[in-house]
Amino acid sequence: MKQKKEFDWFDRPESKRKLWIMLYVVCAALVVPDVFTHRHAYFGFAHYFAFYALLGFVSCAVLILFSKLVALFLKAKEDYYDK
User: Fold this and answer.
1) pTM of the model
2) For residues 69 and 75, is the Cβ–Cβ distance under 8 A?
3) CB 8 within 8 A of CB 14
4) What single string gives the DSSP state of each residue in 57-70?
């Protein structure tokens, strides 16, 4: 008899859709206060709408890309432990 594969909550298509919607709602909720906040920025470009949200996103993306680049040099060979 075949055993039915039990899926995790995160593997269900309806759950994935709910998680994406929740992500969009949280991101929008974090950007909305930027409309009502007066910033005393040291640099002129820091006054743009959602500047700090974009800065955080770009910084995170750069860190991920940099870590993938570093992983190319630090990756161990497949037979490293078989010696």
Assistant:
1) 0.62
2) no
3) no
4) HHHHHHHHHHHHHH
Domain ranges of the chain: 9-74
User: Is-contact 51 31, C-beta < 8 A?
Assistant: no
Amino acid found at 67: S
Range in 1-10, 30-39, 54-63 the model is least confident about: 1-10
Q: Under a CB-based contact definition with an 8 Å cutoff, are residues 53 and 34 in contact? A: yes
Following DSSP, what letter does each residue of 10-34 receive, concatenated?
Answer: GGSHHHHHHHHHHHHHHHHHHHTHH
Provide the residue type at 65 as one letter.
L
What is the pLDDT, as a whole number, of residue 60? 94
Q: Residue 59 corresponds to which tokens in the numbers above? A: 């910084």
